[in-house]
Amino acid sequence: MGYRVVDTDAVAPEPDRPCECRKLSDPGGLDEAAINRFRAEPGEQLPLAYHYHETQQEAFYVMDGTLAVETPGDTYEITADDLFVVDSESPQRAYNREDADGPVTVLAIGAPPADADAVPYDPNDE
């Protein structure tokens, strides 16, 4: 058996990201899932680009604020305590609207962990 407590504020934010991103998988000793905590100010997006994953499913749990998720067919508004799930091969871009009242904090979970399988998506190619 094994147990760990991770002080998420002690995990350094990733450099060169469009918003604050704290990667929690390694500090938590996880190798079957990716867990990241994002905090985006108004106008900031979570991912580096509009993208999809070939094999990974993602789930975004909104801890506070409202998360906007752009997809090819719609833009969703996810509020605090709601979960937004993205199947593999489904393009999305998550962000905090420019006119938001404040930041949005999101716990993002992906399985299997697959940073390398993110594929850029251009909605203008449709």
Physical arrangement of strands within the biggest beta sheet: 1-2-9-4-7
Share of β-strand residues: 35-45%
Radius of gyration: 14 Å
Taking pLDDT < 50 over at least 5 consecutive residues as the criterion, the unreliable ranges are none
Query: Can you give the helix content as a percent range?
Result: under 10%
- Tell me the distance between the termini: 49 Å
What is the SS-derived class? mainly beta
Average predicted confidence as pLDDT: 94
Question: How many helices does DSSP assign?
Answer: 1
Counted beta strands: 10
SSE pattern: EHEEEEEEEEE
Envelope shape: globular
Largest sheet: 5 strands, antiparallel
Organism: Halorubrum trueperi
Protein name: Cupin domain-containing protein
Pfam families: Cupin_2 (PF07883)
Describe this structure in words.
- It comes from Halorubrum trueperi.
- Residues 38-109 form the Cupin type-2 domain.
- This is Cupin domain-containing protein.
- Residues 14-25 have a biased composition (Basic and acidic residues).
- InterPro entries: Cupin_2, RmlC-like_jellyroll, RmlC_Cupin_sf.
- The chain is mainly beta.
- The chain has a domain at 16-62 and 74-105.
- The chain has one helix spanning 25-28; strands spanning 20-23, 34-40, 51-53, 57-64, 66-70, 75-79, 83-86, 93-95, 104-111, 118-120.
- It has a five-stranded antiparallel beta sheet. The protein has a three-stranded antiparallel beta sheet with strand order 6-5-8, with no helix packed on it. Strands 3-10 form a two-stranded antiparallel sheet.
- Strand 5 and strand 6 (75-79) form a beta hairpin.
- The chain is globular and about 50 Å long.
- The termini are far apart.
- The model has no long low-confidence stretch (mean pLDDT 94).
